[in-house]
Design brief:
Length: 1479
């Protein structure tokens, strides 16, 4: 056996030597000298004999049966290796070829890229046409420059190319890449110049058929030189791509802001509703609090006066009273003193209970309000995510929210109701389902893949007549796993990438997409899971609504294919069900694992004969690409307990006693209880209110003689706004000023002994002025108007550092969420806040909160990046947010010990850190993008050193002015939304000369005067402010910028627009392009070859001024451009001094027809069309009606060499010119223009013209029609032809069959029709009426039959019937070229002579018309109708004589025309002077 193998090996080596011109016998000598070996097309089944060629550098093996790479360990110098079109299944045996530079393994059966780690010098790899599914194994090839993996099964790119930074050429054509996110990963290859995803030699990737594919690639990879074998190196193309993307980002930014604006409006309505709901509880609380303080003051005064003993505390007295009431409930023997005291305490206790009750109502309203806010924000966030998904997918995934007016909305609604069975949900207390929102999903890529798979299935299968493939299509509900609740990102991932991503983590459990045709099967697992979860978390929960009330549902279109029933023991997998596309499990088979509730439901169904369960099935689809998500449905269940939300009704908040679940509502009994408490004894008598405080009043209230004796001062319930000289009360320990009119407390200072201060229920807006209260222990600031969290806490920390109890509830704080932790963290001595004791855990959390709210070195290291380039990513978020999420360029952990890392920082994202101040940024001198959103900043500071800052985001703070950014002269984008700005300082924006984006939404700005010099602004967002007029910024709309924007963005018909309408981008099957009434200004269809089958284009009623990019469409035959503004075939150049730089750049884009220089005026006037190359050589029919065309020459129509039909009706053409090149033209329509004359060269080369339309013009003469020798139809109606002599000129058009002259003055002459009938022997139709043989005979003898011949001496006096009235005068018969009398005498001989000779009249007429414009054409023809009638009357008009006369006249006419042509030779105008002949 070994001997046979050796013999075969020897034969193979011999064949190798023979093929390469080597001698096998001398292989030991020639082998080491050989550097190149080649073997083509069989003869080398395996790699052997390489040991004879140790110096081999190139090995080429093509078309062999090699299955394994071997024997190459003997070729360490090998640099080029070709093993193509073989049978390789694995890359192996190359580990010793460390010098390998080029590796070609195309057209094999390789499935994995592997074993290339040691080939560090490899620069070129070709693995096209294999079976590779994943790109891997390239991480060590840092020198790789070219990679070809076309024609494989790759669907994902990921980050596999990150180590290959030197890659220059990449071919991924013929794979399954279908996501724009995958392409975005290629943007990280800095040297990539040539990328192919749609190589003509391969099928395109699915992504190449999507809209905006080329734009997306060119924007993300601006360094590309070639894309899909096309040259894209021109800078203009990249500029246009970036401009298009910027436009899309701007558009979606506006839409996102609109959604946020709508959310703000809805939240404002909710807030207004909350305020209305809280008004009653707040009023009650204020009323009861005021009465409590009144009673406490009265009680204190009674105790001070000795009327009531003050030997017990209020708390102990309260307990004693309660015990006394329990023990002596019916005892009346209580002393009068104790009775009065008990009444005080009983009423105080009752009032406090009512305050507790109303506080609970406030909390309930707040809780419901927060729930409603959460719902609104969640819904809003989903819409925003949809918009961002649309942007990221470049519009290939769109979301459409439905309404009852949409048919598909109603269809989905009916589908859900039809699959909802009330008996199934009875055990859960559900009585029905309500649809809140339905969103339609338009995912082009998923639909394209679905339809492709569907069509492949149909092509393979032979369906019988009874089996309709449409029955295999079904709308099913996706069943979410309850253990994996639907998150926003997961939902979006399903809608964007399909169910593959959702099922990846479930493959170990079930290798199929789980769906159902029943809402019961779909929702039951979720309902039970949430019920159990709620039960475990909170046994005594009293939630306002069931946790399962709201849900989401995905409705998917599913192709079931071959479906089989599920077997009980076999797991759901393709292996267990070979040949099946889907598996179904009827609901009756699910009973084994159903709950007791299910049994109860089934018994109820059986009792009522409900057959829903017989139709309900669970489906499992093995191929996720056959499941197309189409709709998202948001719904809620209606339950037995009717939940009436406070914020979903405008009914009165006071409800009936019989209502259940009255949380947040107020019962009428509650108000009755309030009245009972208020009427309890003792009643407090009203006291006069103190308005102004003086010394006498203070002493009177304190019941003291001198200030030093005053320890307690109770000024409750007055109308005070100032506390004059209160600082003189140095011994004051307790001060009560509740229920007054204070707006500030600046009079309360330097009270060293003050321990208790109650300033509740006032209008205090600031604590500025409070100082010197070092011993203060209790401070009540509740029910005021304090807003500025940071400023007020700083005042308290500085001047009341020892306060133990603080109450700041019911103030409109700006940042209430972080208020408690902020206060606890800064007031270290505090033990009680808002009546709640502070725990150790809470104090520790507050300390961490305060530590994290400062910008430290660790904070900068964590939230900074060092990227130098602006990210090219489709997003509306600030660049600082984007880079911190996607960038890996963090500061090196080894360099943070020194300060060298500070200048490297370019990105800083400090959002949501509760910062109250921007500090410690002095060293970030190269910072370019920064974001400080959602903090507690009140002013902009600390950025003075960041002079390179380009983008600054400060949304969601408390900033009241923009001082602090005036030095940031490089700033281009500034966002200060949701702050407290009231004015815009002009001096700030005067320095920001590069600012082009400014967003100031949701502030309190009243005027835009400060923006008057912000000339660079492009985007301004100013909604939700108090601006009443925008006149201050009208001047910022410069005309040049508007024109530039229009040139770049406005009215462009692009491939993306067409693809969006068609739903795909495969234009090769298009035969017609119809895009009317769309304000199109330019056409940019690149590459034009993909429209090669388009033969009919209709762009009627647009704004085109030229043919634009239409000239590049190769096979257009019919082009309709009526109702546009066409000036020329190619765009006319604007004067360069009137163009902006961007317009001049845009002019050079050849795809739009710009950059084609038109002819000069001189050339146009001289028939320049002959010198220009032809264009649109397939065009045969052109419609240019109603375009306002006035100059035909400027149109350059002569370049359309093969044009056959030209329609120019409804324009302003006055001269027919510029048609020299249209030698194949068969029909010309010039109706409704301003043509007055037909010039000599108008139809010089229109020999093929068959029909000419000139109706509704201003023609008076019919000259120069002789070249139209084939003209058969001529329409001259509604012109100004007056003379019969003009009609006689039509004899020069011998082929004329149809003529129209209605509406001309000449038609009022009775003889015009007989004249034309006689003169035009081939005429068949005149003015719409057929010319018969009888009419022609009548026309010839009409005048003879009408009347006889009177005697006369001359033809002038003879009064020939039918002659015009003017014939009685001398001029009518104006014969200049022949002598009529001589002709007659020559014809008839000397027997018949005219006695009268026209010497003087004819001579005078000749002199009169000697200087006419065209003396040859203004004279009458020798064959005059008047002369013929005269001859017939004189001679008898015999037939023979007439024939002789016709022949004679025809001969004379021919001679005359020959003479006339000789006179006008050289195409000189008739009125031009004669020119010498040129040699």
């Amino acid at each position: 056996m070994i001997q046979i193998d050796n013999q075969n090996t020897e034969e193979i080596i011999k064949e190798l030597c023979t093929s390469n011109g080597l001698s096998y016998e001398k292989i030991d000598q020639e082998g080491p000298e050989t550097s190149t070996l080649e073997m083509f097309f069989s003869g080398y089944p395996k790699i052997v004999g390489m040991s004879f060629f140790p110096n081999l550098t190139t090995l080429t093996l093509v078309g062999q049966s090699i299955q394994k790479i071997s024997d190459l360990e003997y070729c360490p110098l090998l640099r080029n290796l070709w093993i193509a079109e073989c049978c390789l299944t694995k890359i192996d045996g190359l580990q010793y070829c460390t010098n390998l530079e080029k590796l070609y393994l195309y057209y094999n059966e390789i499935s994995t890229i592997e074993n290339l780690e040691t080939l560090m010098k490899l620069e070129v790899i070709w693995l096209n046409n294999n079976q590779i599914k994943e790109i891997q194994g390239l991480h060590t090839l840092q020198n790789l420059k070219e990679l070809n993996v076309a024609g494989n099964l790759i669907y994902k790119i990921g980050t596999c190319f990150d180590p290959n930074g030197q890659l220059e050429r990449l071919n991924l054509s013929g794979n399954r890449i279908c996501s724009f996110k995958e392409l975005s990963n290629l943007a990280g290859l800095p040297h990539l110049k040539d990328l192919s995803l749609n190589d003509p030699q391969y099928d395109p990737n699915p992504i190449c058929l999507l809209c905006n594919y080329a734009t997306h690639v060119l924007y993300h990879m601006p360094r590309l030189q070639r894309l899909d074998t096309y040259d894209v190196s021109q800078k203009q193309i990249k500029v246009l791509a970036e401009a298009t993307v910027m436009k899309k980002i701007m558009y979606y930014n506006m839409r996102v802001k609109s959604v946020h604006r709508q959310l703000n409006e809805e939240l404002e309505k909710l807030k207004e509703r909350k305020c209305k709901l809280q008004k009653l509880p707040e009023d009650r609380i204020k009323l009861f609090s005021c009465n409590i303080k009144h009673l406490e003051r009265e009680l204190t005064e009674l105790q001070t006066s000795g009327k009531i003993q003050n030997n017990k505390s209020i708390k102990s007295k309260r307990l004693e009273i309660e015990k006394s009431i329990d023990d002596n409930e019916n005892t009346d023997e209580i002393s009068e003193e104790s009775s009065l005291e008990n009444k005080f305490f009983l009423k105080l206790e009752a009032l406090r209970e009512r305050i507790t009750f109303w506080n609970r109502k406030l909390d309930e309203i707040e809780k419901i309000y927060q729930m409603e806010v959460k719902k609104k924000k969640k819904s809003n966030s989903l819409v925003v995510q949809f918009l961002l998904t649309e942007l990221e997918t470049v519009g290939n995934t769109r979301f459409e929210e439905g309404s009852p007016s949409d048919s598909w909305f109603n269809s989905c609604y009916d589908l859900i109701l039809s699959r909802f069975c009330a008996w199934d949900f009875k055990a859960y207390g559900i009585t029905g389902v309500k649809i809140n929102r339905i969103i339609r999903v338009h995912n082009r890529i998923l639909r394209m893949i679905f339809e492709e798979k569907f069509q492949l299935f149909l092509d393979k299968e032979v369906l019988s007549e009874t089996e309709n493939y449409r029955k295999m299509l079904e709308c099913l509900f996706y069943v979410f796993d309850p253990d994996l609740p639907v998150k926003k990102k997961q939902l979006l991932q399903v809608l964007e990438d399909g169910f593959q991503a959702m099922e990846e983590h479930k493959l170990s459990r079930r290798q199929a997409v789980r769906l159902s045709n029943s809402l019961t099967i779909c929702e039951r697992p979720r309902i039970e899971f949430l019920q159990q979860q709620t039960k475990d978390e909170c046994e005594n929960s009293n939630d306002l609504e069931e946790p399962f009330r709201y849900g989401k549902l995905i409705i998917a279109k599913v192709f079931l294919g071959h479906s089989v029933p599920a077997r009980e023991k076999d797991p759901i997998s393709q292996v267990n069900y070979p040949g099946a596309n889907s598996v179904f499990r009827p609901r009756k088979h699910l009973l084994s694992d159903s709950s007791d509730a299910d049994d109860e439901m089934y018994s109820a169904m059986e009792h009522r004969n409900c057959d829903c369960r017989h139709r309900q099935c669970e489906w499992f689809i093995f191929d996720h690409e056959l499941v197309l998500p189409e709709y998202i449905v948001e719904f809620e269940y209606t339950t037995l307990v009717k939940v009436q939300s406070l914020f979903s009704t405008l009914s009165n908040v006071i409800v009936d006693e019989r209502k259940k679940n009255t949380e947040g509502f107020i019962l009428s009994s509650d108000l009755q209880r309030d009245d009972e408490v208020m009427n309890m004894e003792p009643t407090v008598k009203a006291r006069p209110k103190i308005v102004c405080l003086d010394e006498k009043t203070v002493l009177s209230v304190a019941k003291a003689n001198i200030y030093s004796q005053i320890v307690v001062l109770n000024l409750h319930g007055n109308s005070l706004s100032k506390l004059r000289d209160i600082s003189k009360l140095t011994g004051l320990r307790k001060l009560i000023v509740s229920f007054n009119e204070f707006t500030c407390l600046d009079d309360v200072y330097h009270l060293p002994n003050l321990e208790y201060f109650d300033a509740s229920h006032n209008h205090v807006i600031t604590l500025e002025g409070i100082r010197g209260l070092s011993k203060l222990k209790y401070l009540d600031l509740s029910w005021n108007q304090l807003k500025k969290t940071g400023e007020e806490i700083n005042v308290l920390r500085k001047h009341t550092s020892n306060v133990l109890s603080l109450d700041i509830r019911h103030n409109p704080w700006h940042k209430p969420v972080s208020l408690r932790l902020s206060v606890i963290g800064r007031l270290k001595a505090l033990t009680h806040l808002d009546g709640v004791q502070i725990t150790e855990e809470e104090a520790a959390a507050a300390s961490c909160f305060i530590a994290g709210s400062k910008i430290s070195q660790a904070c900068l290291l964590e939230h900074s990046r060092t990227d130098e380039a602006r990210p090219r990513i489709l997003s509306v978020h600030p660049y600082a947010n984007i880079l911190t999420q996607i960038s890996k360029n963090k500061v090196d952990s080894q360099t943070h010990f020194n300060s060298s890392w500070y200048p490297k920082v370019t990105v800083l994202d400090l959002d949501g850190l509760h910062l109250s101040k921007i500090a410690n940024l002095e060293k970030l001198e190269n910072l370019r993008w920064a974001s400080f959103s959602n903090n507690n900043l009140t002013k902009i500071e600390g950025l003075e050193s960041c002079l390179n800052l380009e983008e600054l985001t400060l949304d969601g703070n408390c900033i009241s002015n923009l001082e602090g950014i005036s030095k940031l002269t490089k700033l281009t984008r500034l966002s200060v939304n949701n702050n407290h700005l009231t004015t815009l300082e002009r001096r700030v924006f005067e320095n920001l000369s590069h600012l082009h984006y400014l967003s100031l939404e949701s502030n309190r700005i009243t005027s835009l005067v400060g923006l008057q010099k912000a000339y660079a602004l492009i985007e301004l967002y100013i909604s939700n402010n108090y601006v009443s007029t925008y006149q201050e910024i009208y001047h910022l709309k410069e005309t040049a910028d508007i024109e530039s924007a229009k040139d770049l963005f406005g009215g462009r018909l692009t491939c993306d627009m067409i693809a969006e309408r068609l739903g795909h981008s495969d234009f090769t099957k298009m035969q017609e392009l119809n895009w009317t009434t769309s304000t199109i200004r330019t056409v940019d269809l690149v590459p034009a070859d993909q429209f090669r089958n388009v033969c009919n284009v209709n762009l009627q009623n647009n704004n085109l001024t030229s043919f634009s990019g239409l000239i590049f469409l190769p096979n257009v035959k019919i082009l309709c451009l009526n109702y546009n503004h066409i000036e020329s075939v190619l765009p006319r150049q604007k004067p360069q001094n009137h163009l902006t730089n961007r317009q001049q750049l845009y002019q050079k884009v050849t795809s739009s027809g710009y950059g084609q220089q038109g002819p000069s005026k001189g050339k146009r006037d001289a028939g320049f069309g002959e010198n220009l190359p032809p264009i649109m050589q397939s065009l045969e029919v052109l419609h240019l009606g109603y375009n306002g065309i006035s100059n035909l020459a400027q149109l350059q129509l002569s370049r359309l060499k093969n044009l056959k039909l030209l329609f120019l009706q409804g324009n302003e053409i006055s001269q027919i010119e510029g048609l020299e090149g249209l030698q194949l033209l068969q029909e010309l329509v010039l109706d409704h223009n301003r043509v007055k004359t037909i010039a000599e060269g108008s139809f010089a080369r229109q020999n093929a013209l068959l029909a000419l339309h000139l109706e509704e013009n201003r023609l008076r003469e019919l000259n120069n029609l002789q070249p139209l020798v084939k003209l058969q139809k001529l329409f001259l109606g509604l012109n100004k032809i007056q003379e019969l002599s003009e009609l006689e000129k039509l004899e020069g058009v011998p082929s004329l069959k149809e003529l129209s002259i209605y509406g001309n003055p000449v038609t009022r002459k009775m003889s015009h029709r007989p004249l034309l009938v006689v003169r035009l022997p081939n005429l068949q139709v005149l003015d719409g009426m057929t010319v018969s043989t009888e009419e022609r005979a009548r026309a010839e003898l009409h005048l003879i039959e009408q009347q006889g011949i009177p005697a006369a001496n001359s033809p002038i006096d003879s009064g020939f019937p039918g002659l015009p009235i003017t014939f009685s005068k001398h001029p009518p018969i104006r014969v200049t070229n022949v002598n009529l009398l001589e002709g007659i005498n020559r014809l008839f001989g000397s027997d018949l002579m005219f006695p009268h000779v026209f010497e003087d009249p004819l001579q005078n007429e000749a002199n009169k018309y000697k200087k006419s414009k065209n003396p040859g054409m203004v004279t009458t023809n020798p064959r005059s109708i008047h002369a013929e009638i005269a001859l017939r009357q004189v001679k008898g008009a015999t037939a023979n004589l007439l024939n002789q006369l016709t022949q004679q006249s025809g001969t004379t006419r021919t001679a005359y025309m020959h003479q006339n042509n000789r006179e006008n030779d050289g195409r000189m105008p008739a009125n031009s002077p004669s020119r010498p002949n040129r040699m």
